Each structure stands twice: as structure tokens, then as C-alpha cells.
Amino acid sequence: MESEKSWEQHALVNELIEGMEVARKLKEDWSLPSSADSRNSLLQRILSSYDKALLILKWNAPISNSQTMHQESSQSPLSIQTSPLREHPKEVHHQQLKQNSKKRFVLLGYFNSTSQHIQKSTLYTCFFFFFRKMVPKWTRHVRVNIDNGFEGPLHDGYSWRKYGQKDILSAKYPRSYYRCTFRKTMGCCATKQVQRSEEDPNAFDITYRGSHTCCKGPKSQDTKEKPHSNVDFHHAKPSLTVETENVTAHPLASFGCTTQDNQHSLFSSMVLENDPFSQTSLLSPNTAESSYFLSPSFLVSDGVCNKPWPYSDAAGIVSADTSTTNSPIFDFNFSLHSVGIEDSKFPFDALDF
DNA sequence: GTTATTTGACCCGC
DNA sequence: GCGGGTCAAATAAC
After folding, report:
1. Which nucleotide lies closest to A177 by the C1' atom and the CA atom?
2. Which pLDDT score, from 0 to 100, does residue A144 have?
């Protein structure tokens, strides 16, 4: 346990120092006629560092603290639509214990692994735990004027590939499942679900999950999607109405896809969907709006990661930017440097599990 | 030939 | 057992 504390503290200190150093550099650059991109990328790095640091802190928060913080934050008048806790407090406590234990296991398993290759079964287990339970998820309600010839859900600037459609029991319209086109080539695990709204057939409810690590964001437009089937609401015609509302889960959920972030990386998907603590205290919009967790990608107007809605690299650690197969990929990342793993060739063989 | 979509089957959590 | 999410073979589109 002492060693755990040691590397956690080490990582934490490293992140804070890095954040400070980059902030200093930003300050120096501020008066220079350097590009906005440069400043934005520095800003991105700073926030990324603090994201990491905060996540490490959160990771190590005592259960009692977590619970207290959750209760406090859930009472916050600013917190919106965090998942209501249905569980009895005792159950919550047990769940947190369980989750904390799992989280710790995953992190320590990674950091402390002396083996050159982590067992595939471990990776598999870790992946599903993270992806299904911890990857951020948020919903957007998007309205589109179908009369204008748009036949399908909005194109959000990313390139998606449909991999399934399902009739939902209580829903009038089927739900379509999309994943990032670059999942195979770049290991991007972002997915989205699109479902036509029952109340308003011209509207779509789009649920995003996971972060783009593919660097093929809105600006690249590297897509082979049929233009008629998707509407790019970044460049929507005036007649196109776009509404966003009910960002139900994680407005800060990492959608970081800057090149820089991929190198630097990110705890991206370790924002915990089911973790009451992270939802309410680390991720609730009130926290974001008011303090540390607001992503630069949301703040900047011309930056490389100027997302159309509050995407964030919050909690990003390291992009395990793996070129891969269809296999599940870790979509969370952490700074190897910060924990003293300097070898950039750290063997993370996600290719063949 | 390559890439995307469709759709039935399968997996897994509840 | 049910239902949501994903897989993967078949098919379509380019």
C-alpha cells in the first residue's frame, strides 16, 4: 500500500508541476505574437495536467470523503441531471468500495505491472469495466428540419460507422448504433446512439459515449459518409434548426481528440459513468463552469479542439493510441512519464486480444 | 475490390 | 428471461 501511495503521490506531484510549468510557458508566450493554436495547445496541456491530478486525487479519496462530496454536490443548485441514486446509502457505500477497489486494481495493475505483457484476460476485463461502466456518456437532443432533404441524424463532424440497429421495446423508433470510423485504424472507441424522438419526429436523441482519440475531429472532415444521410450542423444551413438540451450525463466527458492530447494524454474515459462521486463532484457542470474541470476545448474559440459543445479532455490521462482490430481498446490513457515509466514503447499490446 | 450498411445472433447485466 | 448493446456474415454501394 505504501508503494501505491508513493507512485500516486509521485504522479500527482508530476502532474501539478507540469501544469505549473506549462502555465508559466503560456504566460511567457502570452505577449508574443504566437499563434492562437499554440496558446490553446498550452492551455490544453495545463488543463490536461490538472485533470490528471484531480483524477488521481479523486482516485485516492477516502470513501467517506467521496460520499460526503457526492452528497454535497448533488445538493448543489447548479448540478443538473446527474443520475439519481436509487440505492440505499449502505448500498452506495458498498458499491463505492467495490468500484474503488476495481479502479485501484486496474490502475495499479497497469502502473505496477512488472511484466512486459499484461495478461490479455486482465486487459479484457479492464476494458469492459472501463468502457461499459466508466466511459462518459451524455445525450444531446438535436432537432433537424427533415423537409430540407436531410434524411438522417445530424453529422457532428466526426466520421461514424453504423454497426447496429435495434428496436427498442418502449420506443416507437429503432435505435441506431454508431462507432468511430477510425476504430480499427486508430483505436478510437467513441460511439454514439441515435434515436428519433417520439415527441418530435424531426428531432434525434443522440447519446455519445467515450472519447475520440482518432484526431479526425470536426476539422478534418475525413469521412466517407454519404452527404445526404447526415447533416453537418457545424455548417448547417440557416434553415436547419439545431437544438441542444438535456446534456444528461457528462457535459465534460472527454471528447479530446487533439493531436497533442493524444501524445500527452488523458484519463479520457475514466470519467465514471456510474460513480456517484465523479458524476456529481468532478463532472457536474457546476463544477465545470466554476472551476478546474472546464476543458479548454470548450473555452477557446479558435483552438484545435474547438468542440461544438462541451466536450472536454477532462480526466484525460494517456491515449493508448493503438492501431487495432475490432477488439476492444483501452480508451483511457495516462502519462507514462508521470509515473516514471519513460519507455515510450511500453508494451501495451491491445492489438490481439 | 473495398468499404459501408443491414440484420439476425449472441452476450451480458438486471 | 428480457432487453440493450455488440458482433459478424451477408449484402449493397461505390
Report:
1. C5
2. 61
